[in-house]
Predict the structure of Cell division ATP-binding protein FtsE.
Amino acid sequence: MSNPILQLKDASIYQGGNLILSDVNVEVNKGDFVYLIGKTGTGKSSFMKTLYGDLPLTKGEGHIVDFDLKTLKEKEIPFLRRKLGVVFQDFKLLTDRTINDNLTFVLKATGWKDKKEMAARVEEVLTKVDMKTKGFKFPHELSGGEQQRVAIARALLNSPELILADEPTGNLDPQTSIEVMEVLQDISKNGNTILMATHDYALLLKYPSKTLKCEDNAIFEVVQRKG
């Protein structure tokens, strides 16, 4: 029995009046690990932005974690984003505070109140990405790979139903990319659903999974050849 967390039907994605992707039909089910590939400028980021409410969906149908993208109101976007974990290429950590404070800041912003509960949750997610001992450090004291692990931990804070990872290894060297990928794989094995945009084809070969490709204003599933 499929359990779609993300479903787009005959959707068109526009940015600033320009048609970026047309007739998009995509389904991501609970527990899936899905890649989104395609050259720069083919619409991967616009697709991601539509999913987390940065771009409106004006044509077709779209449902994500129980939200209707077509009727999504401005005031609903923060609630949508609480159910999503978003990991960006450039980490987006707050440089003026420690890792623990970065994560606590997100919890406070999303309605957590109890200090003990917040501290416990921060420790829990940092443990998941093997960064438990680094919580007292500032972002600039960490390597790129460590910062991205923290960004993944931050995405996990509110137990999201879907993690959108937009080029999470884009700024990392190959070895660090694999380390970050291992973290994402572990999270996926725990039942988290992940949609990851990437142009790192080496990762697709090493960790094969369902793959969607953006090309010629369309998104289609790529069937990976075995062996």
Q: What stands out?
A: The beta strands are 4-15, 18-29, 33-37, 59-64, 67-68, 84-87, 162-166, 194-197, 210-215, 218-222.
